[in-house]
Each structure stands twice: as C-alpha cells, then as structure tokens.
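$ ./design --mode recover --in tokens.txt
reading tokens...
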C-alpha cells in the first residue's frame, strides 16, 4: 500500500474522542468523522456537541451527524444521504467507538478493510452499552479493551487484539473509563499500524462461553436498597459515578446522592437495614442486609458533592435516623 491508511472514524463520547485523537496524532488521514447529533444537556438543557465533534471541529476534520444510518429506520432520507457520503469518501477502514448508532450490513461493507470497533470489555463478557459500569457493579477483578471486526450482531464480531487491566478497589466508572480510553486508543493505533504494514489483521472468533450483556444504565437503578449486602452497595456507588449516582431518601423525605462509600463490619447485628448506626467525620455508617456501609461523600439536591465532614456541617445527621427502603 503506497498511501497511508485512510480512516473514517465514528464515535460520540470522551471514550471515543481519545481514540480519534490518537489515530489523528499518529498521522493517519481521517477524511470523515461521524458522531451523533448534538443533544440537550446540563442545567439549561442547551444543545451540546459530543466530545468527538469538539475534537473534529478543533482539528478541521470533515464531520457528519446523521440521526441514523438505517434506511428502514425513522430517518430514511438522512440515512441514505449519510451512506452516500460514506461511499463518496475515499477511505480504507472505518473505526467505531461508542458511536451509539446501529451500523447495518450495507455500511459495514463499504470500507475495503471493514469496520473495526474499540470495545471497553474483555469480550464476550459485557457486550452492549455499559460495559464499564457493569464490570464494576458485578465485582469483576479485571477488565480491558477488545479491538474487534464488526459484524451485524451486538459486539459479536471476531477479536483482533485484547489488553487487560485490573479493576482497583477504589475504581469508579469515571476512573476506569479514563484508563480504558487510553488503553483502547493505544490498541487501535497498533492495529492500524499492523493493517497498514501487512494489509490484513488476524481475527479470532469470540468464545461461545462467558457471554454477558451490559444493559444501558437507567436512572431507576440509582436507588440504594439497604437490604442488600454492603459490598454490593459499595460497588453500585462506584459503578454509578459519574452517572446516575447512588440515590437515597432520609426518613423526612429528603433525597440525597451518595457518591462514595465503603463496606465496613456491622457493629450492631439485627439493626434494621437503612438505619444510621454511627455518625463521625470519617463517615456516616448505615446498617445493610449484610454488614454496613460507610458513606463518605454526599450531595443534597442543588448542592455540590461534599465530604462527610462538610456535609454534616450543613445537615446534621444522628444515629437512629433511617433511610427509606425502596418498595
């Protein structure tokens, strides 16, 4: 191959932007970037450009934001126009990372070397939308990134390369996201360098065993059920940082967000789950179904995330008060 490998990139959030930046900085021509349409976000619900769009605009890369790539979907005219644009854009391979739109077979077939995906899990574990959150929530001790060749299924394509990283006891979705974004960016550039050098990549089918699905995180999952073990609740809080946070309601109806918590040995067995058993500057300890949970970072509606010490200065809590149990 005499020319550099030309890479069309499709992705939306920060995780994808890290990959795009690494590909661009490695000198691969990027003739077109696809990202999702701007979405309302923040308190004012103003339209916000995706992280990938911001990078593309800053670096003068051609950009398209189709609402769909499916001719049989809700936006057939826009999909047809985007597919036409892809076909008219000379490129060799398409890299996809957390794009959020389904790629039909017609799109997968356009690039000479197909479509390659950066996926934030050790496939086939955690196929789907929220692999980082679900790996923490489930208590996995390690995760990683899989580079795979895309097919029409949901994260079912053959694997091209894999890199592992441990999940540390204090990792949140935010911290693990940043590690995996950097790992994925390095891994995709290695794969593109190899593809450019040899003209092919060796693919290994995913194992048939160990398949799990990482469903999208819903706000309705945020509520902490104090009847669960403290270990599980601590993982839930870490998995749901930065979104949607752990949600709890005090006995007077005040809602709170729990942003950091750790399991501790229960001091009083038989205490009703959800009961505050200790209040100290080190944390507010709440009885759980098994063990107890020490809350160390809290937030009230409209307020900021606060350490327990700062929080208690504004809202005193005392032992014996209760958090509501979800119905």
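writing sequence...
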């Amino acid at each position: 191959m005499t020319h550099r490998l030309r890479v069309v990139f499709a992705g939306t959030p920060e995780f994808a932007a890290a990959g795009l930046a690494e590909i661009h900085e490695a000198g691969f021509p990027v003739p077109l970037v696809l990202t999702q349409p701007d979405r309302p976000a923040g308190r004012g619900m103003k339209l916000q450009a995706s992280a990938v769009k911001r990078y593309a605009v800053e670096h003068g890369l051609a950009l398209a934001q189709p609402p769909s790539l499916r001719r049989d979907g809700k936006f057939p005219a826009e999909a047809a126009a985007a597919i036409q644009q892809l076909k008219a854009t000379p490129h060799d391979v398409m890299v996809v990372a957390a794009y959020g739109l389904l790629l039909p077979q017609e799109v997968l077939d356009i690039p000479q070397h197909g479509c390659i995906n950066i996926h934030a899990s050790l496939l086939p574990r955690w196929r789907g939308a929220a692999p980082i959150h679900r790996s923490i929530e489930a208590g996995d001790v390690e995760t990683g990134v899989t580079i795979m060749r895309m097919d029409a299924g949901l994260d079912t394509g053959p694997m091209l390369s894999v890199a592992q990283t441990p999940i540390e006891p204090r990792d949140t979705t935010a911290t693990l996201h940043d590690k995996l974004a950097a790992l994925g960016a390095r891994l995709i550039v290695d794969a593109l360098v190899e593809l450019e050098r040899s003209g092919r990549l060796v693919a290994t089918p995913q194992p048939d065993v160990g398949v799990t699905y990482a469903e999208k995180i819903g706000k309705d999952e945020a509520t902490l059920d104090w009847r669960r073990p403290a270990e599980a609740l601590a993982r839930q809080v870490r998995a749901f940082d930065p979104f949607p946070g752990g949600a709890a309601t005090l006995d007077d109806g005040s809602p709170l967000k729990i942003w950091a918590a750790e399991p501790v040995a229960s001091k009083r067995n038989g205490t009703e789950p959800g009961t505050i058993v200790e209040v100290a500057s080190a944390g507010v300890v709440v009885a759980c179904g098994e063990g107890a949970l020490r809350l160390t970072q809290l937030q009230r509606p409209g307020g900021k995330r606060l350490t327990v010490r700062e929080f208690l200065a504004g809202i005193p809590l005392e032992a014996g008060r209760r958090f509501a149990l979800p119905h």
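exit 0
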